[in-house]
Structures are given as C-alpha cells and as structure tokens.
Amino acid sequence: MTSSRRARLAASMLGGAALLALATLPVLAEDAAKPPAVVNGQPITEKDIAIASEDLASGLPQQMTPEQKRDYLTSYSVDMALVAAEAEKEKVVDQADLDQRLAYFRKKILMEQLLTKVGKDAVTDEAMRKLYDDTVKTIPPEQEAHARHILLETEDEAKKAYDRVKGGEDFSKVAKELSKDPGSSDGGDLGWFTKDRMVKEFADAAFALKPGEISQPVKSQFGWHVIKLEELRQKPVPSFEQVKPQIETYLQRKAQQDLILKLRGTAKIDKPEPPKPSEPAAPPAPAAPAPSDAPKP
C-alpha cells in the first residue's frame, strides 16, 4: 500500500471515529442528566439525594459502601415522596400547622448555614497562629517528673522492697515482681506527670527527690509506695499541630457567638421576665386532740 493510500485510509478511519463520538454525545449527556429515580412522573434529583445524605448522616451504618449508601438514600427519597403525596391526599396535616413548621425549619436552615459560613470564615492561618502564640505566652512554666514506683499493701512490705532496691537490685525488676499496681508490668513506670496529677503524699515525695534517688516508703490512700525519680523537666508546650483542632473549634464557636451577641445587641427584643416561683403554702394546722376526760354523750 502506498503512502498516499495509507493516509487516505487513516483519514477515513479518523473521520468515522469522530462521527461515532459525535453520535454518542447526546446519549451520554442524557445518561448524565438522568435522575436517580422518578416517582409518578416527579424526578428524585441529585440534590434530593445530597440533602437526604446530610439529614441521615448520623444514622447511616459506617460499614455501608458508597453504592449501598446511594441505593439506601434513593429508596428513602422515593418512599418519602410516596408517603408525602399520600399524606397530602388524605389531608392528615392542617395547612396552617404545616406552614408554621415549614417557616420554623426555613429559619433553622438559614441560621445553620450562616453560622457555618461565619465559623468557616473565622478559621484562617493567621487567626489560628495568633491565638496559639498569644495563648502560649500566658502558660506559666510547670515542672514535670518521670518516676517509677512499687505499690504494696503494708509498710513492712514496702520497707523490704526499699531495702532490695537500695541494695542494688534493679528497680524495674522488683516492681514487676512485687508491685500491686496493675501497670507494674512496665516496671512501675508512671511516665511524665505534673504535681497536681498525683495524690499529695505521692507528689510531695516524688518532687522532693533528685533524678536517680529512691524514696523511703510513702503512705497514700492507695497503699505504700517506694518511688524512684528518673527525670525532671520543664513541661513542654504543646506544638501548634497538636492543638490545631481545638484552635479551629474555638475560633468557629467564638465567631458564631460574637455574631449572635451582636445581633441581639442591635435588635429590639421584647421578652417578659419569667414569673417568680410562688412560696409554698403553709401546711394546715393539725387538728387538736380530744381531751381524754371529755364527757361522753
């Protein structure tokens, strides 16, 4: 086949492919515009499905696949349309009551949409960083201890444990063997803690030690402790990333609250004071007993 014939054949094939693509465009567009369902001639739209998804989000099982979820929401929307139409036919709802309910939910939706927007607009990188930096400056320095302990029921048991670890036995090993603390499988390790997180007797003894020192037996409401202080440090300030979710929530709620307070301050609101609770009535006086020597009829 000559090069000129190959070129003509290729052009012919391309032209056919282009015509086929053009011919299928209306069908594809029709499929894309086809609603999820039609109920008695009325379409259930994608927007209907989206609203149902938002409304039912908290009640849908987490294990649903996207296909199962869509099928459920479509069926729900179909059933709702059918039942609503039947309710209108049977006039089960008073129109004035329905209008009042619709007005209530219209205001509720508008309120939620505006508060969501205000909260979202308030969460900027600049606002979050500023709140974080300003808050960090106000955090007072606080000391943290990293300690281990052996918890025993009696003073005598605690003294024996103290003698063993002071005599050179490994503290973690003795804690695993003797301690009544359920967490002693980790060698009595309590991790890092501030003074206010422990009972007073324990905290006073732990923070009075120097790193590496072991305390005499200390009594608390939980029993007798032998404490080993591992380290002391200044409590680190949480990083921005650690507290970012809390910052976002705070900024959203503050912006929403500020808006409500502003609107209240500029509105004329007539709201009667609630009635004060009335004082309880005095109990009736007991009837006087009849005298024992009253004359008999």
From TrEMBL:
EC number: 5.2.1.8
Gene Ontology molecular-function annotations: peptidyl-prolyl cis-trans isomerase activity
Extent of Pro residues compositional bias: 277-297
Keywords of this entry: Isomerase, Rotamase, Signal
Signal peptide: 1-29
Residue ranges of domain PpiC in the record: 142-231
Enzyme class: isomerase
One Pfam match: Rotamase
Annotated catalysed reactions: [protein]-peptidylproline (omega=180) = [protein]-peptidylproline (omega=0)
Entry superkingdom: Bacteria
Composition bias type Basic and acidic residues, residue spans: 267-276
Region of interest (Disordered), residue spans: 262-297
Sequence similarity: Belongs to the PpiC/parvulin rotamase family.
Family annotation (PANTHER family): PEPTIDYL-PROLYL CIS-TRANS ISOMERASE HP_0175-RELATED, PEPTIDYLPROLYL ISOMERASE
Stated name of the protein: Parvulin-like PPIase
